[in-house]
Amino acid sequence: MPEPQALYHTKKQVISLDRSTILKDPMIWKFRFYGFLKNLKFFEPFLMLYLLGAGLSLFQIGLLYSIRGAIIYLLEIPSGLLADHWGRKKELILCFLFYIASFVVFFIGKTMTHFSVAMGLFGLGEALRSGSHKAMIYTYLEKQGWFDEKTFVYGRTRAWSLLGSALSALIAVPLALGLPAYRWLFLVSVLPYIGDMVLIWSYPDWLDKEETSGERPSFSSFGVKALISVMRDRRLVKVLLSSSIYDGLFKVIKDYVQPVLALILMGTLAGDGDKSLTIWLGITYCVLHLAGSAASASVWRLRRRISSAWLMNVSFDVMGAVALLLAAFSLWGSPLTVASVFFVLYVMKDGRRPIFADLCGDMMDREVRATVLSVDSQMASLVAMVAAPLLGWIADGTGLPVAFAVTGFFMLSLNRILKVQSRELAVLPIEKQITGEVK
């Protein structure tokens, strides 16, 4: 059944568009397969078990995650600037080379030093990847005259990413049970990443970076002026703050609720131990990712009737309310009710990203899209880095329900001053700001 009709408006033309035409476009299919392959990380559900089995302590594993997080945090914005200046396609290919090198070192590694190198390489891949592919999607939609359909397109491409996560969770179970050791999962994960690198190589060269008039400035000059242009746009800054705080706090809450899911499963298993827990955890996260995929693919229908700014604001408040529900249910509810609220939170988060992509796409200047999206990712990492130990300290002192309640009240209060608005006036093109053509 074909998708409903849509109208795309520009200053020059009005085009009647059948959304099924967009979905049949070869590049749109490539965008979808990119996300699908990227999320086939079969080792992910068992990474902690693998590192513990290698003889590392929990403190050493915490240091490994800190190494990865620090590299991502430090390189997020520079990597976005590099993508916008050097080329997004080139940078994505480089990021997959870092990923593959990381998997190989994990496979052969035996000591803390080996695993530190592997985590560092993985962090480099994460930092180089963030924002670059979404910027290429924006560029392609503009070229095709489909930019108003970015919520629809990004929602569908993200849905395929989540389908990849769901399939990965399912496939990882028989792989983990059938392979000689967990470390072989890293080698299996190399295969889809090689496929993604070849896929990126097949993208047209004109997606590499935006065309500019005149001589392109130096990297340092471009970077300083690009960041200044982003920070001067108060509407865009509010959108980035709303997105990064939401995503950062979600990461923290998700980590606190995950043990509850494991306890629920352990309480319902017949008693065949770790094997059953592995199977049911894989199924549980498969269901979560499938539900998130459905939310991401369908959120464009809401966007047809409600503004993205309103949806961003309301979802921020809803997450605050959900955190308060988690606090209440942790005191007076059952583990199943906590898991149900977590399920709603997880699905809502996956539905919110296409809304952010739509609103941010209207506000970003063409020349610095990867930079802007890297700023969002870095800010989310910073929020998580600050919130995780703070909420952990509160939970140690007064209990987990109080930590959830503090998060809820914080979000509801902050959103009174953080409410984002739709873009009303065009911003001076970044290429003119950088080259100084307009004073």
How many beta-strand elements?
Answer: 2
Structural category is mainly alpha
CATH topology: Growth Hormone, Chain: A
What distance lies between the first and last C-alpha atoms, to the nearest angstrom? 52 Å
- Share of residues in helices: over 70%
CATH class: Mainly Alpha
Taken from the alpha-carbon principal axes, the silhouette is globular
Strand content: under 5%
The topology string of helices and strands comes to EEHHHHHHHHHHHHHHHHH
Description:
- It is a single chain.
- By secondary structure, this protein is mainly alpha-helical.
- The protein has a single domain, classed as Up-down Bundle (Growth Hormone, Chain: A).
- 78% of the residues lie in helices and 2% in strands.
- It is built from 17 helices and 2 strands.
- A two-stranded antiparallel sheet has the order 1-2.
- Strand 1 and strand 2 form a beta hairpin.
- Helix 5 packs antiparallel against helix 6.
- The N terminus and C terminus are likely disordered.
For the structure shown, list the relevant keywords:
two-stranded antiparallel sheet; globular; 439 residues; Growth Hormone, Chain: A; 78% helix; disordered C terminus; 2 strands; disordered N terminus; mainly alpha
Task: Break the fold down into its secondary structure elements and pairings.
Layout: E1 5-9, E2 14-18, H1 19-24, H2 26-38, H3 47-53, H4 58-86, H5 88-108, H6 112-129, H7 132-144, H8 150-178, H9 184-201, H10 219-231, H11 234-268, H12 274-303, H13 308-332, H14 335-363, H15 369-398, H16 400-418, H17 430-435
Antiparallel strand pairs: 1-2
